[in-house]
Amino acid sequence: MEEQGVRGAGPVGRGRHGPAWWGRGEGEGGRRWPVRSTVVVTAFVLAGSTFAAHGQQGERAALDPFARVLVLVAGVLLLWRNRYPVLVAFGTAGAVMLYLGAGYPYGPVFLTVALACFSAVVAGHRTAAWAAMGTLWAGHVLVAHWLYRWLPPSGDAPAPWTQEIVVATWVVAITAVAELARVRREQWARERAERARAARRRADEERLRIARELHDVLAHSISVINVQAGVGLALLDSDPEQARTALTTIKAKSKEALGEVRQVLDTLRAPGDAPRAPAPGLDRLPELVEQAASAGLTVEVRGQPPRLAPGTDLAAFRIVQEALTNVVRHSGSRHARVHLDHDDRALRLRIDDDGPATGADAGGSGNGLAGMRERAAALGGTVEAGPRPDGGFRVLATLPLTTREDDR
To answer: What is the average pLDDT score of the chain?
Structure first.
């Protein structure tokens, strides 16, 4: 489970192939071959082993071709340390074990095992890395303190136990550094994932905001246009002047709707730019009442709004606009009441009509009510909508005067 968690933090789409003990990395093409570092390490180990052989001449066996092959094998195995970290850890440990068992000089050959186990720990194969280092250390103890009698070089004496303490210290140091690198790598992966989630969240919030704006603008405007078009068709022959008035209203309302839609689209094209026109607010409530009257709806407004932040002012206006649009579209009542009330903490909007409902979507469409609730929730407020006990429909919105953004 531990190893899967680490691999899961890697790039999406790079699966894991092969059995669990194989210890593959992120897939066959998931990582580059570490050619440069492998060549440098192998050359350093070969040169260092030759230098160590001169310093230990007469104490250890001479560095013959077989010893150089073992060193070369341990070095070349490092090419696969990112793809097969477990196999490389045990492979380098086995090659170095043969090297020590043959009595060859101590030297930088241990660097191959250290690098292989480091890569295994960073890749999440901690147990396998510890097992490989533990196996090598146990083999060294057997060779240095028991099997040395039967292994080359002849006449070799047992190694001092202090040497084992040094080896164990190096093992602990390698493990600690590898664990630190692994933890840091997991932290980077979590930070990348969190940034990606935050970017997706911002994109979703912006998409919902634009959807609400377009819905509120188009639903209200098209409802007015629909009503006026019906009036114009009905009076085209009997009262041409009234039909002309209806067509004039349609023209004005469609122009206004196009302007607001264009403003939303301009925001999409240039996200950082300021809007060309101020966002609507409750100061345009008389205009909203006039538009509703042109659609045949009489609106009675009571109360005065307080001074509002731009975001709250826009949300309040859109909620009233959507509620009146729903009355026009879904209610048989031609009269609506808008009541505004506030205290030091919140603004309360109440929009009532006397009904009855004229369609299946009584009170408004799901998108309209959802949009109102989303606008209020974004500011820390609420919207309640439903039939009144005495008939008709009511929308009750509560918007805080101090928004979440103001508290920051």
So the answer is: 78
